[in-house]
Amino acid sequence: MKQTHEIKIARLKEAFKASSQEYRQACYQLFGWRVDRTKEGRYKLSSQYAESPDDFLFFHVGEEGVDMLETDFSANLGSLIEQYLQKQRSVPMFLNAVQSDLFSQQTVTNVMI
Amino acid sequence: MKQTHEIKIARLKEAFKASSQEYRQACYQLFGWRVDRTKEGRYKLSSQYAESPDDFLFFHVGEEGVDMLETDFSANLGSLIEQYLQKQRSVPMFLNAVQSDLFSQQTVTNVMI
């Protein structure tokens, strides 16, 4: 009886793991961003178009909204931060702009190779 | 003993539910898209900038890649589909373009009001 319960719990954990993996993978393929929750409310975003795995962003997502935390990569995004986060106040539009820039750079690099 | 196990299972389910809700909510706030898994491999995307809840997109995400399924909303996106899905072959760049269009339309509407 005890074993049955343990098996049930193990299966439940497996099912949950598979289902969250599927959702994360879908987000990655749809948006081109890998979204890793590093701790409560904190998310690391890495673009599928980034040149280097060091080019990631960090966000704190809370009830009062979304804040970007500084990373080496974000330190070079001053004009996009000003235009999209400060003026337009839109995190989605900011991420769009970052992604579009990375995509164009990659396309240019590929053409040059 | 049986009750303890049932409580454990119930708590586990609660914890899973809360954790996936948090992740979905973070994706919504970061990307501006609500992503609902409707059945295996099938995802419904609704933009936070859409004028109507009927303006949604459907995608099939599988191991061989991502396909967009036609909806009433996608039927009006012919030029973006051609440019981003067919020529550039990038779902993220397609969703960026759709989102940017919806955002500009919303901004224009707000300015007009």
What are the low-pLDDT stretches of chain A, counting only 5+ consecutive residues below 50?
Answer: none
| Largest interface in this structure | A-B, 41 and 41 residues
| Alpha plus pi helix count of chain A | 3
Q: Cα-atom Rg of chain A, whole angstroms?
A: 18 Å
Q: What characterizes the major β-sheet of chain A?
A: 4 strands, antiparallel
Output the strand order for the largest sheet of chain A: 1-2-3-4
Report the strand count of chain A.
Answer: 4
Indicate the multimeric state: homodimer
**Mean pLDDT across all amino acids of chain A:** 92
User: In whole angstroms, how far apart are the ends of chain A?
Assistant: 63 Å
Order of helices and strands of chain A: HEEEEHH
Shape of chain A: elongated
Percent of residues in helices of chain A comes to 40-55%
Percent in strands of chain A: 15-25%
Which structural class is indicated by helix and strand composition of chain A?
alpha+beta
Q: How would you summarize this macromolecular structure in one to three sentences?
A:
2 copies of one chain form a homodimer. Helices cover 55% and strands 22% of the residues of chain A.
List its salient traits.
homodimer; 113 residues; alpha+beta; 4-stranded antiparallel β-sheet; 3 helices; 55% helix; 22% strand
Layout of secondary structure:
Two copies of one chain form a homodimer.
Chain A: H1 2-31, E1 33-39, E2 42-47, E3 56-62, E4 65-69, H2 78-87, H3 91-112
